[in-house]
Amino acid sequence: MTAATLDAYDSLLDRYERATYIGDAAGVLSWDQEVMMPEGGTPARSKQTAALSGARHDILTSDAFEADLEAAEASDLDDEQAAVVREIRREFDRAAKVPKELVERISEETSNALPVWEEAKAEDDWATFAPQVETLLELKREYATHIDPDADTYEVLFADYEPWLDLSTAETVLEQLRDALIPLIDDVNASDADLATPFDGEYPDDDQFALAESTLDYLGYPDDHGRLDTAPHPFSSGTQFDARVTTRFDTDDPVGAIGSIVHEFGHATYTLGLPQDEYGTPLGQNRGLTVHESQSRLWENHVGRSEPFLSSYVDAVNDDLGTTVSGRELYEAANQVYPENLIRVEADELTYHMHIILRFEIERDLLSGDLDVADVPEAWNAKMEEYLGVTPATDAEGCLQDIHWAHGSFGYFPTYSLGSVLAAQLFEAAESDIDGLDAQLAAGEFDALHEWLTDEIHQHGARYTTNDLVRKATGEAFSADAFIDYATEKFTALYGL
Q1: Does the pLDDT value for residue 484 go beyond 70?
Q2: Is the dihedral of CA 146, 148, 151, 154 positive or negative?
Q3: pLDDT digits (tens, 9 = 90+) for 347-403
């Protein structure tokens, strides 16, 4: 690489890093709005986040940025540099097609939509939130048209969250899950297995918060690089220096809170595992939401719902909740299949994917114009009855339960199922590579698994495309086979099928 092209590459990185820092600052403001900001702060916050979105867009679409990018692409790059330029090129190509005014408008409207969603959910009134959904759908259709006027709108939006697995892959996986899981769920429902339900009291939020803190300590979450809070919808956000988690509680269901905090820990441990010396560059960023969700679902399901883990973790549960539950009882309670469960984030491993399919289908119909926003509650309830045999009594436990549409995150939901599928594939590979992994989980020892995930996934950032990363870690292409085999074996044994 000549001095001139080296200068161009370094200049490109400098500009990109500045854009990343601005985006991360906006992320902190978003976290604050959901966790700590006073209720009346929205008008100012929406202007602040819009300004930051506009400033970031200015950097990524400037003539100087494009010139540096073209000069870097013409250079003799090594593999890591080529990966960096590949990722930046993709982001530039999308950003440059979207007017700054639209970027700022979307940011402002999503900030404004959040308190409206919260109010609508509290009041159980979809009609309160519907105008914000109409506005965000319109803006997102316009956004997608700017990026690719000839492409399917949903496909363009899906690529914001999963850039390297196409929508047809997501559709295939969802079809495979539906075909495999519906008969398995039917068999479970027909089973006469009597699994333990040891939690029949009320468990105050303070006790559950203490358990969440104990759980994070048990798993090895570093207090000096994160924090725990509550939020209306659990989430994790941050950087490799500061990855925060949130959860929520139901006084009747401590098992749900356990799953939630382990899930968010999985997100945070991926974020914290990204290379610190690459912060600001694509090599210091996550690979996308399929991989991100694979980390949360791996820890939630393959660790947090496993009998080896729960056999040792149960002591913390009993200490913080004042219960006398056995490890086996906790395992059965954590793995019961409840088709009648209305809430996605509280769903079991099997029916969870029916919740995703439902949202995927509704989003596609909304964006295509085949479904009117006003008719979402009716469509939602009909699909809940079709897929799970239950109808929500309220909008709050139906179409208002998720925060994603307030964020304008249309196209996000398929990554949850893709991540679950990848989690099974990665855990299968980890079990093959780590001697005595179950025994380590039973002993509360997580270092080997954490190191394996860091070596195979976290440390690479966005160096590899999704399929290349999966193949490197597992030796195989991305596939639903491992998840279907895992789920069939686990629930056949648990329910004596």
Answers
A1: yes
A2: negative
A3: 999 999 999 999 999 999 999 999 999 999 999 999 999 999 999 999 999 999 999
SS (H, E, C) 267-290: HHHHHHHCCHHHCCCHHHCCCCHH
493 Cβ neighbours under 8 A, 6+ residues apart: none
Band of pLDDT at residue 4, cut at 50, 70 and 90: low
29 contacts 49 by C-beta, under 8 angstroms: yes
At 7 the pLDDT is: 86
**What pLDDT, on the 0 to 100 scale, is given for residue 65?**
98
What lies within 8 Å, CB to CB, of 65 at 6+ separation is 12, 15, 16, 59, 92
Instruction: Phi first, then psi: give them for residue 247, nearest 5 degrees.
Output: -150, 180
Q: Find the Cα–Cα–Cα–Cα dihedral 315, 317, 323, 324, rounded to 10°.
A: -30
240 within 8 A of 279, measured Cβ to Cβ: yes
Measured from the Cβ of residue 186, the count of other Cβ atoms closer than 10 Å reads 11
Closest C-alpha among 83, 82, 85 to residue 68: 85
CA dihedral 169, 170, 172, 175 (to 10 degrees): 170
Which among 87, 118, 162, 264 is annotated as catalytic? 264
Residue 38 DSSP code: -
Q: Provide the token pair at 476.
A: 């195989």
The tokens describing 255, both together, are 């098992």
Which residue in 166, 169, 173 sits closest to 151, CA to CA? 166
**Domain spans, the chain:** 3-123, 167-494
Measured at the CA of 473, the angle between CA 469 and CA 478, to 5 degrees, comes to 60
Sequence-distant (≥ 6) Cβ neighbours of residue 55 within 8 angstroms: 22
Please report, for residues 190, 269, 343, the alpha-carbon distance to residue 184 in angstroms, rounded to integers and kept in the order given.
10, 32, 20
What is the per-residue pLDDT for 343?
92
What is the crossing angle of helices 447-456 and 414-433, to 10°? Answer: 120
Q: What's the average model confidence in pLDDT over 27-56?
A: 96
Model-level pTM greater than 0.85?
yes
Query: Angle at CA 360, nearest 5°, toward 494 and 294?
Result: 50
Side chain identity at 137, as an amino acid letter? L
CATH of 167-494, one of 1.10.1370.30, 3.40.50.1970, 3.90.226.10, 3.40.50.1370: 1.10.1370.30
Euclidean distance between CA atoms 71 and 118, whole angstroms: 47
- Distance of alpha carbon 250 from alpha carbon 258, whole angstroms: 11
Across the strands, what pairs with 245?
228, 236
Tokens, residue 400: 């208002």
Tens digit of each residue's pLDDT (9 = 90 or more) over 429-446: 999 999 999 999 999 999
Q: Active site includes 349?
A: no
